């Protein structure tokens, strides 16, 4: 957790059950259950080779390098959406946030969609506001916690 925290809140969203007790809303708990470590790692480590894996006994410096490569540089992430332009990613994000599939939103956002992109709707001008209009509380929670994130392109 310390290595994740050292990346800063733009690059890593580690949460502690003890240190961050005040942030655990019902929606955030449900979001963590829906996404979970396995699904998040299916994306962030989708192209991780066996010889690149981090081991339990790896030294601190190797952990820091690995976590930086994984989350800040996006070195091991799945690249299924790499052929989409930024504009296409943003359009797909706006369409995704009004539906319950947070994993689709995660993949779009982590692939380069802009969490604060213009939606074309003068009243609901951000993906967060579109999700709110559609009553998608988990989408809103996910977008809120990633509004200042800076994902690798």
UniProtKB/TrEMBL annotation:
Keyword flag Repeat: no
Keywords from the named record: Metal-binding, Zinc, Zinc-finger
Record protein name field: ArfGAP with RhoGAP domain, ankyrin repeat and PH domain 2
InterPro entries, sorted: Arf-Rho-GAP_ANK-PH_domain, ARFGAP/RecO, ArfGAP_dom, ArfGAP_dom_sf
Record-annotated Arf-GAP domain positions: 1-88
Keyword Iron-sulfur among record annotations: no
Matching Pfam families: ArfGap
Organism: Mustela putorius furo
